[in-house]
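Quick one before lunch.
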Amino acid sequence: MKLTKARPETQKKKHRMRPAHHASSRAEGLAQPGIEIMAATAAGLTKIYGEGETEVVALDHVDIGFEAGKLTAIMGPSGSGKSTLMHCMAGLDSVTDGEVRAGDAVISELSDKDLTLLRRERMGFIFQAFNLVPTLTAEENILLPLLLGGRKPDKDWEAKVVASLGLGDRLHHRPDQLSGGQQQRVAVARALVTQPAVIFADEPTGNLDSKSGEEVLGFLRRAVDDWHQTVVMVTHDPKAASYADVVVFLRDGQLVGRLENPTTDEVHDQIRALET
Amino acid sequence: MRLMLQLSLRTLSANRLRFILTTFAVLLGVSFVVSSFVLTDGLTRTFDTIVEDANAGIDAQVRARSDFDEVSFTYRPFDQSLLEVVAATEGVAEVFPGAQSMRIIPVKTDGEPVKTTGAPILSFNWTGSSPSVTVVDGVAPQGPGEFSLDQTTAEREGFVVGETYGVLGVNGVEPHTLVGTTRFGEENALGGAVMLTFTLDELQRLDGTEGLIQWIEVSAVAGVEPDALIGSLEAALPSTVEAVSSEVIVAEGQDEIGGILSIIGNILLGFALVAVFVSTFIISNTFNILLGQRVRQLALLRALGASARQVKFGAVLEALIVGVLASVLGLGGGVLLAIGLAALMDAMGFGLPSIDLIIAPRTVVVAVVVGIGVTLMASLSPARRAARVPPVAAMRAGFRFGSGEGTRRTIIAVILSVLGSAAIAYGIFGGSDDTGLIFLALGAGAVLVFVAVSMFAPLFSSPSASFLGAPLEHLPGANITGHIARNNASSNNKRTASTAAGLMIGLALIAMASVVATSLKASLRSELGSTLTAEFLVLPPNDGNFSNTIAAQVSALPEFSEVSAVRYGNMRVAGEEKAVTATDLSVVTDLLDIDVLEGDTVNAADPSSIVVTKKAAEEHGVEVGQVLVVEFAESGMRALTVSAVYENDFLVGDYLIDLSGWDQNFASTSDNVISAKVAPGVDLAAAAAALEPLEQASPQLTFQTKDEFAADIEGQLDSLLVVINVFLGLAIVIALLGITNTMALSVLERTQEIGLMRAIGTTRRQTRSMIRLEAGVVSLFGALLGVLVGLAFGWVAVIAIPDSFISKLSIPAQTLAIYVVIATIAGLVAASIPARRAARLNVLDAIAQI
Ligand SMILES: Nc1ncnc2c1ncn2[C@@H]1O[C@H](COP(=O)(O)OP(=O)(O)OP(=O)(O)O)[C@@H](O)[C@H]1O
Ligand SMILES: [Mg+2]
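Model of the adenosine-5'-triphosphate complex:
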């Protein structure tokens, strides 16, 4: 592989880069004790858009696992299939081939109804923008997944999440009364409130200034460290990626690299390597 | 401008569903308008031909001379001996005496008299003179004991040629042989009426009018001009009869039918205009919403150098395209609707002839004017707003149009409501004699009030929707979707208001009709209760008349103390036609509490007296003891003494004469009603039992208690109300289309929001219910507002309608509540398509827009 040759300094670091197929061998070890537990895995995940001449292979036999209790970042050039991967793993999109699992559920085989319930109960979402329902207050937005399921919110947990995100005095505001950073924090709170198996975030800081972005990343990091949440985040920003425990790299729908506990520079280098 | 046209076309095709729905709403209105014209034009032409055919072959008619009917819708009879005078007149070739009766009824084998749904049972003497009445089967009646029946009735009621049936005349049921069946015109289109024919002698005997005929048809000797024939007839005849040419007869007949048809046509047109009015709101609303969604695009156009005028032109152009499409399709739809309506009326037993489809130039013009006019009018305000979009809005997010709470808007609404109320007040209290003007004032007033209410509505639509939607928060299993639906319904005050406006109008009219009808019923009940002191009434079928021998038979029963026949006729007072009622004045106050103010009715029971209401006395400036000159069709001018003045005109009108006075001044001697008071000490059941034999002898008559009578009238009112509601239903359907449209647009607008909600775990079902519940809240708001406006209108109507019809306001709370519930549910259902669209929305596509 080209990129293995093209990593100049990363080798010296404690985080070694492994070829992509290693990730799949990890996924297979899901049930084995002592090895990291996977919150979500994909095997041979292929996603093809369109047919014939307009056919686009967005994901090409991807094998991947997202480790529970870790923050994984997905990186790669535009159009490399990051969002598609996330959508397929989150049960938002159907797969062309392969198997996707979240915990014990085989996502690729579920009905729309079951997928919806799975997303509601076992997953959290943070999008780049338009994360909130405009006619609901911040608090209602946070509790939305619970309310949709007719579940009673766990008051203590809610209070803890809200307090740690510093949203206490903003709960009764509507989204248009909140700053972009506050809106994103509300989205984080909403993702956390159900204590989901995985939180998916697609460029959660893409629309924020650097300070707000760092705040949001800090919360995601803390959610993993303090509350053992699992977060999968798509990002273009090497600095954002440096908050992650694991960074995986995609190109042309294939996994082309992986870094553990990277620094910003390491990510930079990796990207540069991938571009050549 | 080419560019603007392209842009307009592209907008239309990009929002196909919305535009199809909008066009459909206008199309429905246009179709309804067109169908009312096509139907009346077609019916008029058809009936004109029928009248012409019926009078073909005769040159003149001799009939009683009068400028008015002494009894409405009947010919005044005259002596048969004039037949010889006419026959002997120079220039006369043939004469055909004519008589008609509505009191002869065929009886089926099972002993049941033939009944109709309101049309009369007409008997004629067979003359063979009219080419439009032909024998289909068997022969024409030749002598006593024979009759023929029209084809349609014979088939429907199972009459067989050659068999013997009972025929009910003044002397009771007598056996008659059905010798033939007849047909009127090509299709026997009698409008649901039954037609019997007899020989003249037999007809007169059965009708109890021996020696009397109602007209003489005359054909001229070849070469004699109609004018010459009329001249010589007039010279030969006494002044009590007149001769008129067949052209006059045809013209009179056509005018009469034309008058009725134009009333029907105007009523249909009225309903059609309501539908058009509602569709105006819908189009305007759709254009406004679409405009809001395209602010960015418009601003970009402006930023790139399009002038405000060009932007405005583009918006108007879209409306124009919709208008043209709706007009053209509406024209076709209207023709289809007319055919459908005619078929429906035929199926309901109106016996319509197949109508000619006439698309008059006027119809086309109206279709185009309505279709295009309405859309253009509806697009004016959105277009003006479009032109006001500042170029900078292209760069700036969150540009929003006014929320509809501006003071200017409120001022306009206030002005409109004042103008509207003034117009309504003028219509009611203006004292105009021109009914057209009155209707115009009332209609324009109602339109202005509706527009004003819809302009006020944004001021309170948000809190109202929030209030009305509050129960949704507690819906089991749907509290969050209910909450969001409530939020959405109350978040855009203007949209909620204008979407609800269509439903408001429909419901207001339905509620008003319902209030008026209920008040009418309640007034009738209470008037009957307090005014009518007789316990029993005898009534003929279809408001007809019956032999004056029955009253004497009732009177002879010991179970009844006071009995009197009632006859309704017309006379003239000071040149004006007035309705007059004849009854036995010596007992009238025992049967009816007419509230005599002055004078005495008992002593007025003679031919030279008249009793009038206070209102009539004031109108003519007469007092008790003074003379009032009246004109009767039969006897001419008569000076009658005013013997008493009364207050209560319920059931009797303003002028009362004694039966003896009637007999002297009217040619007709039939009764219209008998009212009878049960003798003291006799209970109702015994009295009813005593009437039994009479009832059996005259099965066509209804012997009713006061309560049954009231219930009968209420039943008729209820059926009328159903018909009105069906026609107003079209406006409701259009309003519902508007709800579908708005919801479809707001689903489109909220694509991202819905996608987001689906992503984080909203099921399809929850998505659907969210949209439906929102529509439900909006509909409930519209329906309630409509009922409120309808109550106000109904209240005004009750005040406006004279006390003799409606004396008190009665609100059908339960019915109105049911209407509101139905409208709300209909609104929920109307949102089904957009709801399904929302639920099927591809989550990723929705998120991709993020
Ligand atoms: N709905 C779709 N139909 C057709 N092709 C699609 C669709 N969605 C994505 N693609 C294609 O699939 C490939 C992967 O797209 P994806 O959105 O996953 O990229 P990405 O890595 O998220 O890019 P970016 O960084 O720009 O968000 C691209 O080539 C894209 O054009
Ligand atoms: Mg992406």
